[in-house]
């Protein structure tokens, strides 16, 4: 079968690889209909220490179940499903608490050994899905599968961020970063009742998308003054770092009011961050680092899409065949699109 693989030199190449097989009774095989290219994929290419040459990429995908192991009960052959970006057993102490990311059996699709055991990804014609009862969820009838693909990671991450912000009616939520996760965080924050959502990004096109989706958009230089004016001088009730890294966290902190909450969902590039401890303590702020969790949150995510409460279509503007996957990667790197999809 054909798959998008790491080329060993900082890029991707489509090549023929062996078809996956059922290895465990809890496995399923999914024929991929749509897969996406994510910013995390680019991070891996830039720092490929855990990514061997030839490894199959991709961690956001939807498709049709074509084979199941004898231990799979929640999905069957013919079901149209979305996968979480990582697997989990569903029964351990962490999984029972809804903290699937900490499951000892977790494996992250398409990322080599960067986040744990290697598991080939979904930018392929077929993909093996371990622990399918936990990892897969049926897509409701009538929901566009090319929208449902976002549930696996980008939308799950945005929802996790907004969920931790827990905006009260009238609250101001600021989002730093206008990529797919930032845009989806802003949409979810609006859906959860935030009074004002401010999205800041250096890119004017991304600011335009945010404005069209109901956020107040501004450049990073403008953000402090915009937020001060909107909040009667207090600052934002919550600030979400949707990019990751020390510089973004440094820029996010001054936007926050006293007693506010900083939520980071961006993958950091640095190993450490110098937090101004005295100022943070005096201001009484809370800081959370959050990972998306479709395995826990699939029901509300699919419901928001299915009812039209969230419309991600402005983010999904590029669709390319699998054979042109390298173009999709270039489009993300060059910021000429937000969320490109590829199909076999």
Largest sheet report:
7 strands, mixed
Classified in CATH, the superfamily of the largest domain is Medium-chain alcohol dehydrogenases, catalytic domain
Sum up the overall morphology in one term: globular
* Cα-atom radius of gyration: 20 Å
Number of H- or I-type helical stretches? 12
CATH class bucket of the largest domain: Alpha Beta
Instruction: Give average pLDDT, whole number.
Output: 96
Percent helix, as a range, is: 25-40%
Tell me the count of domains: 2
- CATH overall fold name of the largest domain: Quinone Oxidoreductase, Chain A, domain 1
Protein name: 2-desacetyl-2-hydroxyethyl bacteriochlorophyllide A dehydrogenase
Domain Enoyl reductase (ER): 8-342
Cofactor: Zn(2+)
Pfam families: ADH_N, ADH_zinc_N
